[in-house]
Amino acid sequence: MSAILEWCQGNAAMTSPAIHRWIKTECGRAKYAELATRRGALARLRLGWFVLIAALRDWPLPNQPGGSAS
Q: What DSSP line would sit under the chain, residue for residue?
């Protein structure tokens, strides 16, 4: 899981993480970063559940600045 966070932080200067295509709000992106740092099976389950729900809720929203252009 820390590899994902390192990848997100390392690519932030060059391009936005791919997850920003699905999670479009700043508060959602902040929560994702917080959940991605946690360890353990329950934490991974919680992260997956969060991404699923956040992606469904943010689907109709336009991409925010800092999001990936697709």
A: -HHHHHHHHHHTTTS--GGGGT--SHHHHHHHHHHHT--SHHHHHHHHHHHHHHHHHHTTSPPPTTSPP-
pLDDT in tens, the chain (70 residues): 565 555 555 544 455 688 888 899 999 999 999 999 999 999 999 999 999 999 999 888 877 766 544 4
- Residue 24 token pair: 């479009």
Domain boundaries, the chain: 2-58
